[in-house]
């Protein structure tokens, strides 16, 4: 090998070894990587604003960045004006130190960057002033530590990890649409929830049938849904016998035959009674004659009724030349529910042609459990929860009555209420859940009905546990009254429940919470 090349190679080898030795020495002398500093947060509500603030453990003399998020509670929008300030007052007394914040770096987000005061415990407040709003949040007591290690250890000891917590950031809250309301005590009416069905009023369901065998005719055939008045003509029925006289003669002959049969039966009964008195016939002979009289009497009444009905109804149909026919009239006012008549079709006597139901007043039949029957007090109002309708339908109770007999199938007491339905909001045959209000009131925690969701029939709400933290709570409903829902268990007074944006919170729960990009402060 060339001597010059050997010298260069040895020099490079020595240089490389020296560099590696220096790197190893520097690595050994380098301090260990600093542990990640935990982040603390605080959430506070007033009647004007919501504060959500993130900050590091506080160490005297070290600058701390307070990320302040402020929401205007009038519309849950991000605040865009003003400068927040933190006021720290020693818990033992003394002068207040003010840490001044900046104007918002973007809607809703402010920064307070300052060094905390001397180590100790401080009462602290955040104050925000804008041209149209001034608000103050009392944040309790905060501790400023003398050294970093003690501050981090204290922060880690107070950290609470809830694996079921749902994270939903402020940014989508401000932009997508969001709202909360506090759980407040309210005086709600007590109501009994029972299944119910809408039925026709007693006497409000009528059938127009053929008074005799004949052919149906009309100038305008009614359709389902048409409204009719009591006595309105709904069609005519032409008798099958072509001549009116022959038809009436047949009916008159039936009356005469029935009368003759009855006269013969009565004469036979009189003769049998005389013979029995002379002991010429047994008693069963009189009993047989009495039975024949009892059979003949209703037959005569029926024949006379058919003849009288024909004469009365047919009288308004005109003469033979005018096309003599029976006039069919609506027996009640209401709506046509069924049409079985067809133009020119022939029907036997008694065949149903139309069904008319009264709809301006209906009957609400509530099935009250036997344990709650009879109702303890008069029902003052009824709210109907009907599938497909977002809001209950309120009706006034009128003429409550029941038979005092349990239904053999449901084992409940059917209680009937007459209900005004001139607006047509209730449909015959419709089922619902009826809330029977009796006037009794009770104070209890309550939330807006918009906050209550259901899953598999179980009601639940989303509770805002922090500015960006939520928890799903299943609840037990005690009462419903208008826009409020009384809660027996599941939430506490003062907690805030989501009233708008619950679907987005649900999506955040399914997505696993915080997006990958997190906050941008």
Short description:
With 521 residues, this protein is of the alpha+beta class. The protein has helices spanning 3-29, 148-158, 170-176, 244-277, 283-314, 502-511; strands at 40-45, 49-55, 64-72, 77-78, 85-90, 97-100, 109-114, 120-130, 133-144, 166-167, 179-182, 184-200, 205-209, 214-217, 227-228, 233-239, 326-329, 334-339, 346-347, 352-357, 361-369, 381-385, 393-395, 401-402, 412-420, 431-448, 453-455, 458-466, 469-474, 476-481, 484-489, 496-500. The chain has four domains: 40-159, Immunoglobulin-like (Sandwich), CATH 2.60.40; 181-196 and 360-511, Efflux pump adaptor protein, beta barrel domain (Elongation Factor Tu (Ef-tu), domain 3, Beta Barrel); 205-239 and 323-357, OB fold (Dihydrolipoamide Acetyltransferase, E2P); 244-319, Helix Hairpins.
């Amino acid at each position: 090998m060339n001597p010059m090349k050997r010298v260069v190679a040895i020099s490079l080898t020595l240089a490389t070894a020296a560099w590696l030795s220096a790197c190893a020495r520097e690595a050994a002398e380098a301090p260990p990587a600093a542990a990640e500093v935990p982040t603390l947060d605080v959430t506070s509500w007033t009647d004007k604003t919501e504060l959500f603030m993130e900050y590091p453990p506080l160490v005297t003399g070290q600058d701390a960045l307070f990320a302040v998020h402020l929401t205007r509670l009038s519309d849950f929008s991000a605040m865009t004006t003003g400068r927040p300030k933190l006021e720290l007052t020693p818990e033992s007394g003394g002068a207040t130190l003010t840490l001044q914040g900046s104007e918002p770096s973007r809607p809703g987000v402010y920064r307070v960057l300052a060094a905390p005061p001397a180590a100790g415990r401080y009462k602290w407040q955040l104050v925000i002033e804008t041209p149209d709003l001034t608000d103050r949040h009392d944040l309790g007591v905060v501790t400023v530590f003398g050294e970093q290690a003690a501050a981090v250890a204290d922060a880690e000891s107070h950290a609470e990890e809830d694996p079921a917590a749902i994270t939903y950031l402020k940014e989508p809250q401000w932009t997508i649409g969001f709202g909360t309301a506090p759980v407040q005590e309210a005086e709600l009416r007590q109501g009994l929830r029972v299944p119910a069905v809408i039925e026709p009023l007693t006497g409000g369901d009528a059938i127009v049938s053929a008074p005799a065998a004949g052919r149906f005719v009309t100038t305008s055939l009614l359709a389902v849904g048409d409204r009719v008045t009591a006595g309105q003509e709904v069609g005519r029925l032409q008798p099958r016998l072509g001549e009116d006289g022959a038809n009436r003669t047949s009916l008159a002959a039936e009356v005469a035959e029935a009368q003759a049969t009855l006269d013969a039966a009565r004469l036979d009964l009189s003769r049998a009674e005389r013979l029995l008195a002379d002991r010429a016939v047994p008693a069963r002979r009189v009993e047989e004659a009495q039975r024949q009289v009892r059979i003949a009497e209703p037959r005569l009444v029926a024949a006379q009724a058919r003849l009288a009905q024909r004469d009365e109804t047919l009288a308004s149909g005109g003469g033979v030349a005018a096309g003599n026919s029976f006039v069919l009239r609506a027996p009640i006012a209401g709506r046509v529910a069924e049409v079985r008549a067809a133009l020119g079709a022939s029907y036997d006597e008694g065949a149903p042609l139309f069904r008319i139901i009264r709809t301006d007043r209906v009957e609400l039949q509530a099935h009250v459990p036997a344990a709650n029957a009879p109702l303890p007090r008069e029902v003052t109002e009824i709210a109907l929860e009907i599938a497909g309708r977002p809001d209950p339908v309120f009706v006034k109770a009128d003429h409550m009555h029941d038979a005092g007999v349990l239904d053999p199938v449901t084992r409940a007491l059917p209680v009937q209420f007459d209900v005004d339905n001139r607006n047509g909001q209730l449909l015959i045959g419709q089922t619902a859940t009826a809330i029977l209000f009796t006037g009794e009131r009770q104070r209890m925690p309550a939330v807006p009905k918009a906050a209550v969701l259901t899953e598999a029939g179980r009601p639940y709400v989303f509770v805002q546990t922090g500015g960006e933290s939520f928890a799903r709570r299943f609840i037990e409903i005690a009462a419903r009254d208008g826009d409020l829902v009384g809660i027996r268990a599941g939430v506490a007074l003062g907690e805030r429940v989501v009233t708008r944006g619950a679907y987005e919170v649900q999506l955040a729960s399914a997505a696993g919470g915080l997006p990958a990009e997190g906050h941008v402060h």
